Amino acid sequence: MKSASEDKRSEIKNRLKTDSVTNAELTVLQHLDTVVNTFIQAQQKRNDADYDNSKEWTQTDVLIQIDAVAEAFKSWNAIAEESVAQAYLVSLLGKRRRSD
Q1: Where are the domains positioned within the chain?
Q2: Which residues fall within 8 angstroms of residue 34, CB to CB, at 6 or more apart?
Q3: What is the reported pLDDT for 96?
Q4: What is residue 97's predicted lDDT score, i.e. its pLDDT?
């Protein structure tokens, strides 16, 4: 999931650098960027919480993360039906290995 999200983040950044992005595409890409970046950040923080016992979490740290995730859900709701959002969702499942 992490590599799929990092790949999508790079793809979004590259797409945003082009001049051919329409206003509608720009809005979708911005929302998707919010979702992807928040997912990467939340996954890293979850990993830190699970494995880094030296990290002390403050209430402020937690509330900031909760707010970021809430914003990501708002962004997701805005683009959930878009094909690029659906493709990202499927990419999180990973590549399936065939067993012959």
Answers
A1: 2-91
A2: 71, 72, 75
A3: 62
A4: 58
User: Tokens 């959002």, residue?
Assistant: 85
Residue 20 tokens, joined: 């051919």
Angle, in degrees to the nearest 10, between helices 23-51 and 2-16 = 150
Is residue 6 very low, low, confident or very high in pLDDT (cuts 50, 70, 90)? very high
Do 98 and 11 touch, CB atoms closer than 8 A?
no
Do the Cβ atoms of 32 and 56 come closer than 8 Å? no
Average pLDDT over residues 9-30: 90
Q: E strands, the chain, where?
A: none
DSSP letter for each residue of 55-92: PPPPHHHHHHHHHHHHHHHHHHHHHTTSHHHHHHHHHT
What gap in Å lies between CA 36 and CA 9, rounded to an integer? Answer: 6
Rounded mean pLDDT, 57-83: 96
